[in-house]
Amino acid sequence: QHNPMAQDGRAAAIAFLEPIYRNNPQHRMTVHRMIVEDPYIVVHLHGQSSPDDPGAAAVDILRVEDCRIVEHWDVTQSVPDNPPNPRAMF
């Protein structure tokens, strides 16, 4: 785990994510694209706490070994309300 706000391991990931979804039942992660080049999977997604939330763009980078995630990196960027660039983030 390379996210400085999360601990390593499956149990830690569940403990980190479970309250987010429990406290935000409308939370959604929409996948917009994936790039797969063994052993990496890159996922570009849009996270929203509710349908009217502009949310954030995220990129998760996963290194997979024997069908298991063995490393994870992520970066996020808030979706601005009035961006100067007219092209959508997704």
The strand order across the widest sheet is 1-2-3-4
What is the H/E string?
HEEEE
The value of Rg in angstroms is: 14 Å
Characterize the biggest β-sheet.
4 strands, antiparallel
The total count of helices amounts to: 1
Helix content: 10-25%
Poorly predicted residue ranges: none
First-to-last CA distance = 26 Å
Oligomeric state of shown chains: single chain
- Which structural category fits the helices and strands? alpha+beta
Number of strands: 4
Mean pLDDT: 93
Residue fraction in strands? 35-45%
The best one-word shape is: globular
In short:
With 90 residues, the protein is α+β, with helices and mostly antiparallel strands. It has one helix at 10-23, and strands at residues 28-37, 40-48, 56-65, 68-78. It has a 4-stranded antiparallel beta sheet, with no helix packed on it.
Could you please describe the fold and organization of this structure?
- With 90 residues, this protein is of the alpha+beta class.
- The chain has one helix at 10-23; strands at residues 28-37, 40-48, 56-65, 68-78.
- Strands 1-2-3-4 form a four-stranded antiparallel sheet, with no helix packed on it.
- The longest helix has 14 residues, at 10-23.
- The chain is globular, with a radius of gyration of 14 Å.
- It starts with 9 loop residues before the first helix and ends in a 12-residue tail after the last strand.
